[in-house]
Automatic annotation (TrEMBL):
<dbReference type="GO" id="GO:0005975">
    <property type="term" value="P:carbohydrate metabolic process"/>
</dbReference>
<dbReference type="InterPro" id="IPR011013">
    <property type="entry name" value="Gal_mutarotase_sf_dom"/>
</dbReference>
<dbReference type="Pfam" id="PF01263">
    <property type="entry name" value="Aldose_epim"/>
</dbReference>
<dbReference type="GO" id="GO:0016853">
    <property type="term" value="F:isomerase activity"/>
</dbReference>
<dbReference type="GO" id="GO:0030246">
    <property type="term" value="F:carbohydrate binding"/>
</dbReference>
<dbReference type="InterPro" id="IPR008183">
    <property type="entry name" value="Aldose_1/G6P_1-epimerase"/>
</dbReference>
<dbReference type="InterPro" id="IPR037481">
    <property type="entry name" value="LacX"/>
</dbReference>
<dbReference type="InterPro" id="IPR014718">
    <property type="entry name" value="GH-type_carb-bd"/>
</dbReference>
<protein>
    <submittedName>
        <fullName>Aldose 1-epimerase family protein</fullName>
    </submittedName>
</protein>
Length: 275
């Protein structure tokens, strides 16, 4: 089911499957911020309870192996609509027989969308309904049209990491053939201390996962466009930038998340996973 929330400036369309935003419409200037192309047929999936790919598409819990798809299963699950008003919606996923076959925990995941005059607030609440600790990762994977409102080119845009006090570091990525971390950090070319100039070559080897050193805001902007995109990310340990490799497609994913893809190697016990 598609539900809509709106105010005088914005409208957001949300699919109850995956609690995924499919449109963020600027009503004043009549454009959609979110990617809607067929070449990558997603918009803003929620990542839970895994981030990225697990070795052998599986993980361990106390010696028992479980299968886990890339980015977890939340994006493929139907969420219940708990509350829906003109400018606010709450959607919820509860553990069920299907989720327990991959993740043997009782949980409740709520996503709260709240439209403000200045933009959109999204909150996540994860409730552990077990007596034992419940390891999980959580993130968001929104894909934004860049250029914004079809103004300029992809390589006219910059990404600012506001609040960053150290040179940006990214996790080294390898493909075996899928994307994994090596466990090492490496530098990324920046303009100044906290600005990346976009071009598709940056993503030739895949995603760029940036370690959050006091980054509180990520801004995508261009000198050729008065419109910009800003995400507040201080609650997340990492921020990932991605666009489809070798494609030159006009979109950029900005993914705040807590948790990381596996380091390439053996299947990992989530109670012992290294960050």
């Amino acid at each position: 089911m598609i539900i809509k929330i709106k105010n005088s400036h914005y409208q957001v369309n949300i699919d109850s499957q995956g609690s995924q935003m499919i449109k963020i419409i600027n009503k004043d200037y009549h454009f959609n911020y979110l990617w809607d192309g067929l070449e990558w047929p997603k918009h803003a999936p929620i990542l839970f309870p895994a981030i990225g790919r697990s070795n052998n598409d599986s993980y361990m819990l106390n010696g028992k192996k479980y299968l886990m798809p890339q980015h977890g299963f939340a994006a493929d699950q139907e969420f219940s609509i708990i509350s829906h008003t003109e400018d606010r919606a709450i959607l919820e996923l509860q553990s069920n027989q299907e989720t327990k076959s991959q993740y043997p925990f009782n949980f409740r995941l709520q996503v709260i969308f709240n439209l403000l005059s200045s933009g959109l607030s999204i909150s996540f609440i994860v409730k552990n309904l077990n007596q034992d600790d419940m390891p999980f990762s959580l993130g968001s994977h929104p894909a934004f049209k860049v250029p914004i409102a079809n103004q300029g080119r992809f390589d006219n845009y910059y990404v600012d990491f506001v609040g960053n006090k150290e040179p940006l570091k990214v996790y080294e990525i390898i493909k075996k053939p899928y994307t994994y971390r090596t466990g090492k950090l490496e530098s990324i070319n920046t303009e100044g201390l906290h600005t990346i100039k976009l071009n598709h070559q940056i993503f030739k080897s895949g995603l760029r996962i940036i370690l959050n050193h006091d980054i509180n805001e990520v801004i995508v902007h261009s000198l050729k466009n008065k419109h910009s995109i800003s995400l507040m990310v201080s609650d997340f340990d990492n921020v990932c930038l991605w666009t489809k490799e070798d494609s030159n497609l006009p979109f950029l994913c900005i993914e705040p998340f807590n948790g990381l893809p596996d380091i390439y190697g053996n299947t990992v016990d989530w109670y012992k996973k290294r960050r």
